[in-house]
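Hi Q.,

Before the meeting this afternoon, I wanted you to have the biotin prediction in hand. No need to reply - just skim if you have a minute. The sequence and ligand are here:
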Amino acid sequence: MSNDWDGGLLADLAPGLASRTFFFDECASTNDEARDLAAKGVPHGSLVLAEKQTKGRGRRGQAWVCPVGEGIACSLILRPVMAPALWSRHSLAAGLGVAEALEISSEVKWPNDIWVAGQKICGILVEATREAVIIGIGLNVNVRSFPSDLAFPATSLLLETGRMWSREEVLIALIERVMTRSRQIDQEFPNVIESWNTRCALRHKTVRCIVSGRAKQGVVEGVSPAGELLLRTPEGLEAILQADEIRLV
Ligand code: BTN
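Predicted structure with the ligand bound:
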């Protein structure tokens, strides 16, 4: 299997997606390119795909690095018709969509990491502009090894299954699923939450996290109907909207 993106294969398998994909051999961050393209008015569902990112970034300002030819680094541009107050729900919807698209058993770690067998396989960075939501997805597809100093143990489809995967096929499946889930952030959000909770990697586990500068420890009960993390602490059940890295105790 070639290590290069095959635009012809993408066009054969998913002509609609291929026609709205902006491909870069190299860019700083697909989220930045997506932001620029969104400002220029590209349509809903446009995709920025890069072979190499020189400044790929994750949440909390962390770097996102993936060996060239071995992963998927892309940013989906959505122009939601829903009220902007609902846009943050894309974070949970996108993580769930990616998890559902993978053909192997996977879980979601709040807010939107995807884990396989207790290791991170995908990270998502959702950013909003005035006119669009950008869903940046970094998925380890055929990655053979990872640096030992990562904040979390990482894995890839290749390491989990012992075989190479077509990045084009994986990309098509995940964009389709993320777009489907992203349409459900309004009336159908209870369905997103229910499915999310069945895949919640931390459910019934004791975790530690930092909330507004304060350390908290508790047992995860899942996510609330609004998408907050529900943490049972000695003070009672807390609904957490934002937290720094959540670690298993
Ligand atoms: C995280 O786990 O902290 C989120 C990682 C998100 C990485 C992806 S790769 C494509 C897109 N472009 C970026 O610069 N980041 C996201």
